[in-house]
């Protein structure tokens, strides 16, 4: 039996990496999925890969009108959301000394403000028994040099989960976070201007991970499926760490 048969899911950042792998897995499990992100072309390529039961909406989580447009479309077409995966995220590593106001604003604008208003604006559509999965990071609870703003933004995301679990309990909505370790996606390339630099980042995270490799986006998608489906029916307010053991060290 498919685990998300007939369910409606919205995935921000669903055009690439973890969001795309999650959208693919959810559709395989019987869901209809809306994917949202800024790059229209990326979304269309993602939809072609997914193949069926997918709709694309271009937009920026920092822009209220874009979020309103996203949820108006879902309301018009399906009238409800069973699963929301708030996955869009941004990183541009800077140390405390280097951190610019622009970097801080973009990091918190995307990862914290954008995520909060994504969930707030989705809420009227989220059905009783629904599931909200937010993507945090092990950076939320580890000291990683140059992740000053990023790590703090992900700690905020983890905090939201605790508050929202209590605020939404009377609606039967479960809220959980996933904290990935180092996962092999474009967000690693985005952390260096050169391929050599990105390779170094990959090598250093691999060396720091007890399973001795980077994770694959599909491994985070599997965790998202667990939290989104009946399999995770008694899991609420949690942070599911999927990191190959990286945070155990
Ligand atoms: P990715 O492929 O770069 O995905 C990031 C996604 O976020 C993209 O699809 C991007 O789409 C979307 N996004 C960024 N800014 C946005 C905005 N302002 N509005 C709407 N969408 C936006 O990298 P990923 O690894 O899959 O990242 C997904 C999530 O996992 C992020 O929250 C990231 O922080 C988290 N994470 C990743 C790792 C890792 O090692 N890969 C580890 C821990 C946590 P557009 O550019 O088209 O907007």
Give a topology summary.
Elements lengths: L7 E5 L4 H12 L3 E6 L2 H11 L3 E5 L5 H14 L3 E6 L14 H22 L3 E10 L12 H20 L6 E7 L5 H4 L5 H14 L8 H12 L10 E4 L7
Parallel strand pairs: 1-2, 1-4, 2-3, 4-5, 5-6, 6-7
Helix pairs in contact: 1-8, 3-4, 4-5
The structure holds NADP nicotinamide-adenine-dinucleotide phosphate.
NADP nicotinamide-adenine-dinucleotide phosphate binds next to α1, α4 and α6.
Order of helices and strands: EHEHEHEHEHEHHHE
Tally of structural domains: 2
N/C terminus separation? 38 Å
CATH topology of the largest domain: Rossmann fold
Helix content: 40-55%
Q: Rg, please? A: 17 Å
Which range does the strand content fall in? 15-25%
Q: Residue-averaged pLDDT, rounded?
A: 98
By secondary-structure content and strand pairing, the structural class works out as alpha/beta
Quantity of strands, as a count: 7
Major sheet: arrangement of strands: 3-2-1-4-5-6-7
> What is the count of helical runs?
8
**Under the CATH scheme, which class of the largest domain?**
Alpha Beta
Characterise this structure.
By secondary structure, this protein is an alpha/beta fold. The chain has two domains: 8-180 and 217-242, 3-Layer(aba) Sandwich (Rossmann fold); 184-214, no CATH class. Helices cover 44% and strands 17% of the residues. It has helices spanning 17-28, 40-50, 64-77, 101-122, 148-167, 186-189, 195-208, 217-228, and strands spanning 8-12, 32-37, 54-58, 81-86, 126-135, 174-180, 239-242. The protein has a seven-stranded parallel β-sheet, sandwiched between helices. Helix 1 packs across helix 8, helix 3 runs parallel beside helix 4 (101-122) and helix 4 (101-122) packs parallel to helix 5. The longest helix is centred in the middle third of the chain and has 22 residues, at 101-122. The mean pLDDT is 98. NADP nicotinamide-adenine-dinucleotide phosphate is lined by residues 12-13, 15-19, 37-39, 42, 60-62, 87-90, 110, 114, 135, 137, 180, 182-183, 185-187.
């Amino acid at each position: 039996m498919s685990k998300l048969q007939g369910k409606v899911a919205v995935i921000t950042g669903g055009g690439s990496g973890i969001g795309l792998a999650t959208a693919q897995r959810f559709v395989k499990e019987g869901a209809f999925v809306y994917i949202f992100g800024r790059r229209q072309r990326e979304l269309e390529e993602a939809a072609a890969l997914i193949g069926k039961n997918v709709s694309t909406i271009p937009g920026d989580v920092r822009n209220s009108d874009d979020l309103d447009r996203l949820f108006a479309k879902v309301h018009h077409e399906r009238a409800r959301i069973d699963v929301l995966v708030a996955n869009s995220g941004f990183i541009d590593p800077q140390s405390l000394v280097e951190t610019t106001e622009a970097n801080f604003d973009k990091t918190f604008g995307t990862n914290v403000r954008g995520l909060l208003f994504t969930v707030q604006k989705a809420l009227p559509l989220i059905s009783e028994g629904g599931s909200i999965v937010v993507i945090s990071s092990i950076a939320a609870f580890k000291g990683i040099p140059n992740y000053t703003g990023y790590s703090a933004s992900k700690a905020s995301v983890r905090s939201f989960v605790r508050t929202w679990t209590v605020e939404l309990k009377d609606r039967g909505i479960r809220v959980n976070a996933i904290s990935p370790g180092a996962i092999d996606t474009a967000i690693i390339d985005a952390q260096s201007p050169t391929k050599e630099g990105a390779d170094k980042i990959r090598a250093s995270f691999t060396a720091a991970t007890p399973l001795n490799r980077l994770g694959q986006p599909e491994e985070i998608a599997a965790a998202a499926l667990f939290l989104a489906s009946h399999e995770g029916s008694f899991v609420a307010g949690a942070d599911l760490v999927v990191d190959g053991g990286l945070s155990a060290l």
